[in-house]
Design brief:
The complex is a heterotrimer of chains A (415), B (239) and C (255). Chain B is α/β, with parallel strands linked by helices and 239 residues long. Chain B has 7 helices and 10 strands. Chain B has a single domain, classed as Rossmann fold (3-Layer(aba) Sandwich). Helix content of chain B is 32%, strand content 25%. Chain B has a 6-stranded mixed beta sheet, sandwiched between helices. In chain B, strands 2-1-4-5 form a 4-stranded antiparallel beta sheet, covered by helices on one side. Helix content of chain C is 84%, strand content 0%. Classes of the chains: A mainly beta (415), B alpha/beta (239), C mainly alpha (255).
């Protein structure tokens, strides 16, 4: 019995070479070092990039390979065309630093492009100044994980997206750090995908941008100091949980922009210091619960074409305006939220205010009709009108009330 | 010294002074008399620049006083009713006035001492009686050796002793120091020893303006009160 | 003039109302800090307090003080002092004391709230409001010899600048909403020192982003140095013009 052990061990050491799979080391040098290596490699080989700068672009990866960078391996696209174009399934690209892809107005050049593939993994790479970062096109079941993608563009028209996905299914985008691009993550026609633990900061347009994508989940991401935090448009059944939308401040900035979307959940998120926390237009049947909306200019701007949304058990703390709307009728349901502007009382001490709270602000209603009236912000006239409106409600939608306003904030843990 | 030329003054629609022409010179003790509403106080206010003058002309030593203030250094004024800030102490008042008139180095302290103002120094103005305030006011009017003294009903609130002290001071001022003193008063007896000339105002005009000696001769009366009564009777019977 | 200012200022500092005013500013200022913490919220709250309190105190207190000191004014007038000297003395001492109390009353809480340049700008704006409304109060006091009338009109001025003007502007904006009136609104704000100063301070804070396109138009002017300078000059004019008119009226007034 014991005599079998050496034989099994020797068989195990031979295992990588099964099917001709071998590891090839690459060194920087003259000419198209990488392309030549790929040409000569057999499927399922591993190419290990040794330390140094490889000056090369337009590298076509057309067979299943593992491309693995050692510490200090850099591929410099020299401000030219795309660096890696992956057209084969089962490719894995890891631990490489890619930089310098030129801006083009004709083509969305990316450091890494995936075209009609599946089961490709892009992991732990660093992308610097690459116009677009990782571009997935008609690809399914791919993983983009742990990459750091930093742009260098200074104006939106010359900026690409850090992770751009156009038509795809079951893609996982996790643990990436994305900054200084147009959008941090861009989804268009991407379904059943999962976005989590990403940090998207200082992007010019959106931290995360959804268009025509359904049944996706994004959670535990941080969107900070972008033009706007997250835009979800023309999409259904999106689950948004435990994200942070921070410091998206500017004339037209939002934490979360919802446009023409239905049946999603927004739970446990933190919206802090945004000009508008949540902006909703044509949003239906969403459930917003257990979120914290704190120190925003306008916590929620919910337009009159939003229906059957349920806003439950959230904390609204220290916002200048709590809820805005442009309609006299309200078709959404607010209940059990904590509103720091609530001025009622709780005589029976059950933790619920005895009078309903009207979170809509008269001044917000006026400025919605007459934008120039913004000049009266913080004037005594406006404060007096607010008081008058609270005593004799005339203009604000009568049904937009929270009948169960909480006396103290929920002790949710948002970190 | 003071020339008044065609002085008119209207308040709203009411014409209070209807063309006054007067000339006052140094050494005169002038009694400005007349019934209530005859324009005495208005005339004094015009002299002091409290009321603005137009049309008309008031000259002080040949200079038009309109919108001027410097001429007032030669005027001592004692108003009919003296009011001071209630929280102000007597001492502070005198200190302030002296500091405003810093160019004056010598003070006329005769009344100041006679009225024993220094004893009141720590008192607040609001706590002083009317008579005490009048004494303060009188002492203040004389303090800077003015060439002209204007006193509006000076004896109204004063006790007899103080009244005599003031009269004595006025006599001296006119006869020894050759200054102009202008007094309005209802109590004509008070003016007996002081006035050398009488100006009687009536409905905004000068009814008569005569030296005392002249009036005495015309009415053959000795006391001021009687003189005026007789004179007025004559006037009305003539008119 | 110096002696009179010194005397009046001392007299004002002994005034109980002035002391209560200082106490009020402290209580509200520090109260806000303990309630709302620090930063911009405090600044905005103190801005609101300034808008409400400064015009009111300046108008009412100054006019009452002027009427109460009227006899003293007459007493001084008997001295060889020009009328303009007297009025300037009154204006200066009221300004010194009320502005001083304002600066001390809000400056201390602002300092502890950690406000930076915006805090200083608020104090500067508030000080100019002091000068403006003291000037307007004296104008009313001189225009109306009757106390009730003077008091009534100064309250009217308060209501006008604090409420009525903005109401009329709102009405105007409602009626001309289809037109691009943002620029016009900017010029209209020049006509009310309270609006002008309020917008100036707001523009330096994050609240500016809440004002949308109007805010953007305003921000072009109010955040540039020349714009800030222009606003401060306009506010100074708002202080100087009423006061110089009041000197002119005072010179012709029958006291």
């Amino acid at each position: 019995m014991s005599s079998w052990i050496p034989i099994i061990l020797s068989l195990l050491t031979l295992l990588p070479s099964w099917g001709n799979a071998k590891t090839i080391a690459l060194y920087p040098g003259e000419g198209r070092v990488i392309s030549d290596a790929i040409l000569q490699a057999a499927p399922y080989d591993t190419l290990v990039f040794k330390k140094g700068i490889y000056q090369e672009n337009s590298i076509l990866v057309d067979k299943p390979l593992v491309l693995l960078g050692e510490e200090g391996a850099i591929v410099d696209g020299q401000m030219g065309d795309e660096i890696f174009v992956i057209v084969s399934d089962d490719v894995s690209l890891e631990n490489l630093t890619l930089k310098n892809v030129g801006v083009s107005y004709l083509k969305d050049r990316a450091a890494i492009r995936l075209n009609r593939v599946s089961n490709v993994t892009i992991r732990n790479n660093r992308l610097l100044n690459t116009f677009f970062g990782i571009y997935l096109q008609k690809s399914n079941e791919c993983v983009v994980d742990g990459n750091t993608i930093t742009g260098a563009a200074e104006e939106e028209s010359r900026a690409g997206n850090a992770i751009h996905i156009w038509q795809g299914k079951r893609i996982r985008v996790t643990h990436n750090t994305l900054s200084h691009h147009r959008d941090g993550i861009y989804f268009e026609f991407v379904d059943e995908s999962y976005i989590a633990f990403n940090q998207s900061r200082n992007n010019m347009r959106y931290g995360l941008h959804f268009m025509f994508s359904n049944d996706d989940i994004y959670e535990n991401n941080v969107f900070q100091n972008n033009g706007s935090g997250v835009a979800v448009m023309f999409s259904n059944r999106i689950s948004m949980e435990n994200n942070e939308f921070l410091d998206n401040w500017g004339g037209a900035s939002y934490g979360l922009l919802l446009k023409e979307i239905s049946d999603g959940t927004i739970r446990g998120n933190r919206f802090q210091s945004n000009t508008v926390g949540i902006y909703a237009e044509g949003a239906n049947r969403l459930v917003l619960s257990q979120n914290l909306l704190q120190n925003n200019g306008k916590a929620m701007d919910i337009k009159g074409n939003c229906m059957d949304n349920r806003i439950l058990d959230n904390n609204f703390i220290g916002n200048t305006f709590e809820v805005l709307t442009n309609s006299k009728t309200n078709l959404n349901h607010f209940e059990g939220n904590y509103w720091s502007q609530y001025s009622g009382y709780d005589l029976n001490k059950d933790g619920v205010g005895d009078l309903p709270h009207r979170p809509v602000n008269l001044f917000a209603l006026i400025t919605d009709k007459v934008p120039a009236a913004h000049m009266l912000l913080h004037s005594f006239l406006v404060s007096s009108l607010e008081v008058a409106e609270r005593m004799f409600p005339q203009f604000i939608p009568e049904q937009l009330i929270d009948s169960q306003p909480q006396i103290s904030p929920y002790p949710y843990d948002y970190d | 010294m003071i020339t008044i030329n065609q002085l008119h003054k209207t308040f709203g629609r009411q014409e209070v002074l209807k063309g006054i022409d007067l000339y006052f010179s140094a050494g005169e003790g002038l009694a400005l008399i007349g019934p209530n509403g005859s324009g005495k106080t208005t005339l004094i206010k015009c002299l002091l620049g409290l009321n603005t003058v137009q049309p008309g002309l008031i000259q002080f030593n040949g200079e038009d006083i309109y919108q001027q203030s410097a001429y007032r250094k030669n005027i001592g004024y004692m108003p009919q009713i003296s009011r001071f800030p209630e929280q102000m102490r007597v001492k502070e008042l005198f200190a302030l006035m002296k500091s405003i008139r810093a160019e004056e180095s010598t003070y006329d302290l005769e009344l100041f001492e006679a009225f024993e103002i220094e004893a009141l120094y720590q008192k607040k103005m609001g706590l002083l009686s009317g008579g005490m305030r009048q004494k303060v006011s009188a002492a203040l009017a004389f303090l800077f050796h003015p060439d002209v003294l204007i006193l509006d009903e000076p004896t109204a609130g004063l006790d007899p002793v103080s009244n005599e002290i003031l009269k004595e001071k006025l006599r001296k001022t006119i006869h020894n120091e050759n200054k102009l003193v202008l007094i309005t008063s209802h109590v004509l007896n008070d003016l007996d020893d002081i006035a050398s000339r009488l100006v009687y105002l009536m409905e905004g005009r000068v009814l008569f303006d005569k030296q005392l000696t002249e009036l005495q001769a015309e009415t053959s009366e000795n006391r001021l009160n009687a003189m005026i009564a007789t004179f007025l009777r004559k006037q009305t019977s003539h008119g | 003039m110096g002696k009179i200012i010194q005397f009046l200022a001392t007299d004002l500092f002994k005034n109980k109302t002035i002391f209560l005013y200082l106490l009020f500013l402290w209580v509200t200022g520090f109260g806000l800090i303990s309630l709302q913490g620090q930063g911009e919220k405090i600044l905005l709250a103190l801005l609101n307090i300034s808008i409400l309190v400064v015009p009111m105190i300046c108008l009412v207190f100054s006019i009452i003080y002027f009427y109460n000191m009227y006899e003293f004014l007459l007493l001084l007038h008997a001295q060889p002092l020009a009328r303009s000297t007297l009025l300037i003395s009154f204006y200066t001492s009221l300004s010194l004391v009320l502005t001083g109390v304002y600066l001390f009353g809000l400056g201390l809480p602002l300092y502890f709230s950690g406000a930076g340049g915006e805090g200083l700008l608020l104090l500067l704006t508030g000080s100019l409001w002091n000068l403006i409304f003291i000037g307007l109060a004296l104008l009313m006091a001189i225009w109306a010899s009757d106390r009730t009338k003077g008091m009534g009109f100064s309250l009217l001025i308060w209501v006008y600048f604090v409420l009525l003007f903005d109401g009329l502007v709102l009405l105007l904006m409602y009626n001309f909403n289809e037109y691009p009136i943002e620029k016009l609104v900017l010029y209209i704000s020049f006509l009310n020192p309270l609006d002008l100063g309020r917008i100036l301070v707001l523009m330096q804070t994050d609240a500016a982003a809440l004002m949308g396109y109007t805010g953007a138009v305003f921000q072009q002017v109010f955040t540039e140095n020349w714009g800030k300078g222009l606003v401060l000059v306009l506010l100074l004019l708002w202080a100087l013009i009423p006061f110089s008119v009041s000197i002119r009226w005072f010179n012709k007034k029958d006291l």
